[in-house]
Amino acid sequence: MNTRVVRAACPHDCPDTCAMLVTVRDGIATDIRGDPDHPNTAGVLCTKVSRYLQRTYHPDRILHPMKRIGSKGSGQFAQISWDEALDTITSRLQSIAARDPRGILPYSYAGTMGAVQGESMAMRFFNRIGASRLDRTICSSAGGTGIKYSLGAKIGTDTEQFANAKLILIWGGNPIASNLHFWMRAQEARRNGAILVAIDPYRSLTAEKCQHHIALLPGTDAALALGIMHVLVRDGLLDREYIANYTLGFEQLCERVAAWTPAKTAATCGIDAAQVEWLARLYGDTALRGEPVAIRMNYGLQRVRGGGMAVRNVACLPALVGAWRHAAGGVLLSSGDSFPRRPDRLERPDLCRVDPARPPRAINMSTIGDDLLRASSSAFGPAVEAVIVYNANPVAVAPESAKVAKGFARDDLFTVVLEHFRTDTVDYADIVLPATTQLEHTDVHATYGHQYIVANNPAIAPLGEAKPNTEIFRLLATRMGFDEPVFADSDEEIAAQAFESGHPRARQYDWPTVKAKGWYKLDMPAAPFAQGGFPTPSGKCEFYCERMLKDGLDPLPTYIPPYESVASAPDLAVQYPLAMISPPQRNFLNTTFVNVQSLRDTEGEPHLELHVDDAATRGIVDGDLVRAWNARGEMVARAHVTDRPRQGLVVALSIWWKKLAADGKNANELTHQRLTDMGRAPAFYDVLVQVEKAPDT
Ligand code: SF4
Which residues 6+ apart lie within 8 Å of 653 measured at CB? Predict the structure, then answer.
């Protein structure tokens, strides 16, 4: 037997970006495990990805090009040759481009996080066409924008250092489900005496295992941060030297937070004033004892109208107490900007020849529901005539799903989908192209949760007629007549271009070496802001931020109420009194893995978790089928009646494939397309609904 072990990287939208070892026997992948030598992975893969072989060899894999033979949405296809598929696509794109190339739209996100199979050859292709640009906002852009106003970049505490913290606030996330390797560090810290506090409207698996849980109202995190700041200032729980040397706008901040008394904060957040006092004092006292206090923010808190501001506010806390002085102190939302990426080399925006008569336009992926239904106009430009979807599943994932499906159902829209499986979006495709999985192609990964570049070597040959995304766009470029040398770059050459070798944080980066070793740790200081050096214009942590003023925002931390809540929209709440959030199911990763039977069996069926009091007033008992609805749509799910959501909250763990639900719907029937305060992101967790027992139960 010919057996070898291949170094690989988990490609999924998860901050952990695990280093993996794949055992291959006679060309078949037989085992997958975490690399025990990679410090972050520590030999552990999550349940989802430990089933990656089931996913790769799944009998439902799309292994051949297909064309639609039924109505849009029906999912009826016939196998065709690659030549027919590529010729059809080329001819449709050429005719649209001749009218106006902006009628062509790429639609992609983090189906793979790889630099090579993500936005490299694909974006070269769309830039060369002059297609509409896609504003990739669907997940993290609100928080990413907010933290940059305060700290200057998405850089923070090294995940490995959390093990040494004495207090960890786990804010807006459920790491057991979606940041497992951070959770392992938090557990280590707890064994060493640390206190863990979860801040989340829902008593998630993580919140259940922390010593303390603050169950605030959804969308009020910014207010809680203001209340904590109030107590820190009021009680002098401050590192005055750090503030004087490394922050900007402390006096204005003090004026701003004066109004945010514990009583006002508690009333806004739906908690007790004593909880605000307790949390602020715990944070300030621990820091002033010289012990490391760390905050792990995740993206849950920024999926509301004021989500960017919430992240900005929380990011101000460590500077007030000097938490950055410690390697194990500070805050982490994302480590994404630690990596010296080279998007200009990968995506080649210079290939786009701007026609003054057709200025470039960007379409926000979060409003695809509306934008696919827009007619041509001088304000919008040409109607979207073609969408090429890769690494994404918008029909299930994008907000206000009914409109998204209606847009993709347009008979005059030409849709191409590169995929592994027949997702909800594939059902609307005109042409489906079989894409390779991570085991079948080359890639290299940055991450947003740690500080390692991780390499992915192909372990097995592509199954069936599947091809890497890069190869598909190379072939399309050739057919379109694009003869620039960049379209001939191999995947190995693209991987070598992905990071700036010689950058101070990646001095030794060299693709052949990383590929052989599997991973490379950036040269980052252990405590990145111990002596200031924030990558803001002032070089300081900006409590007062001039850039926000220029961008039309309040330059100081403030609170922006949700679009939809009992307090901010009382009239709407008369009809729809329950707040709904839709965080990730533990065994799914967005919509990936929902079709892996063993994982779906673990999750059961779509369900809605209701507080016991809310269920009782509606005559609902555990196990009933319930209908949740608002003006945008409805969904039916099985009721789980518990005390895990706070009263007034329903939780629809997500993201189910619509076609695998009994009613063909998921929680995005109920979400809306209004955008966050910054970053143009969707406010998925800023939703009011009503719930009743489903009529047939
Ligand atoms: S999904 Fe996350 S935790 Fe699971 S294997 Fe991938 S990177 Fe690791």
Answer: 582, 583, 584, 585, 586, 603, 607, 609
